[in-house]
From TrEMBL:
Biological processes per GO annotation: acetyl-CoA metabolic process
Gene Ontology MF terms: anaerobic carbon-monoxide dehydrogenase activity; CO-methylating acetyl-CoA synthase activity; iron-sulfur cluster binding; metal ion binding
Official protein name in the record: CO-methylating acetyl-CoA synthase
Annotated source species: marine sediment metagenome
Keywords assigned by UniProt, alphabetized: Iron, Iron-sulfur, Metal-binding, Nickel, Transferase
Length: 294
């Protein structure tokens, strides 16, 4: 584990640092398709630590360290040790070596971010040409049920996970790595409503996995039985009744929106695993989909 730059003890209460995390791995069974799967598990690993809170994904993460953890001597090195241990414990079947580098210098982080964005774009491009009608199996994602126990993401080629970090291909790879994990294949079954995207077996799966709290879920509609959200969405779309249109706000935008709420307030309304007709959390990539809010 290597830390370059300022550490937590240099901050006042409420202060902040830029943060870049690089996890380098090696293993005979490691594949490039597994990279986004391992990357997304950083979210889960961090939230298993007492006094550490992680939200978001890719290059729009929020990480908070509690006062209690800071008082107890928490350092960024501990994030590295946590990730090093968890990757070895959970993925020993594919990983032989792991090393973690943490950066807090603004210029270094910005340069690393540019490099990462190139990789993210390449990942998103892999799904070009795939359509939901061409396959019979979608995938679930329950990684965020620690935040929202009722929430279940259903990931298809034309609707990636709302976090933007998991595509249909990523979920398929995750299932290959861990067949009993949070990404399970779901047979679509019979189509109930093609326009808004409802299938009987998808609804049955969602009902069971949400603990009986969500009876029906539309893959594409933001009005009729919309998909639930946890809190990791890249964007929020909201209906604006006075205009007959919708607005979309991304996580990075801090100002007031046309609906009268900032992103943080909207996130509290949309997240938590509840269906909120007229509002959906979604990824940036989904905006370009032909299935966007059908």
């Amino acid at each position: 584990v290597e830390v370059q730059g300022s550490d937590v003890d240099s901050l006042e209460v409420g202060g902040k640092l830029p943060l870049g995390i690089i996890v380098e791995v090696a293993g005979r069974k490691m594949q490039p398709d597994f990279e986004p799967v391992l990357e997304r598990h950083i979210h889960m690993f961090m939230n298993e630590a007492q006094g550490l809170w992680h939200m978001g994904q890719r290059d729009i993460n929020w990480i908070r360290i509690s006062r209690g953890a800071a008082k107890a001597g928490f350092k960024l090195e501990h994030i590295g040790k946590l990730l090093h241990a968890k990757f070895h414990d959970d993925y020993s079947s594919i990983l032989d070596k792991v090393q973690v580098k943490i950066f807090t210098d603004q210029k270094q982080v910005e340069e690393l971010r540019k490099q990462a964005q190139v990789v993210f774009a390449e990942r998103d491009a892999r799904l070009a040409g795939m359509q939901d009608e061409d396959i019979e199996t979608f995938y679930s994602c329950t990684l965020c049920q620690s935040f929202a126990p009722n929430h279940i993401c259903v990931v298809s080629p034309e609707r990636p996970g709302l976090c933007g970090a998991y595509s249909w291909l990523d979920c398929r790879a995750a299932f290959e790595i861990t067949p009993s994990g949070p990404n399970q294949p779901i047979s679509k079954g019979n189509c109930v409503e093609p326009t808004i995207g409802q299938w009987d077996k998808i609804n049955a799966f969602v009902l069971k996995t949400s603990g009986g709290n969500v009876e029906r879920m539309s893959q594409y509609s933001m009005i009729t039985d919309p998909m639930t959200s946890c809190g990791c969405f890249e964007c929020i779309a909201a209906v604006l009744p006075s205009t007959g249109g919708i607005m979309i706000v991304n996580r990075e935008f801090p100002e007031m929106t046309p609906c009268g709420m900032k992103f943080s307030t909207l996130a509290g309304t949309v997240g938590g695993g509840q269906q909120t007709p007229g509002f959906i959390g979604h990824s940036k990539h989904y905006i370009n989909s032909r299935k966007f809010i059908a």
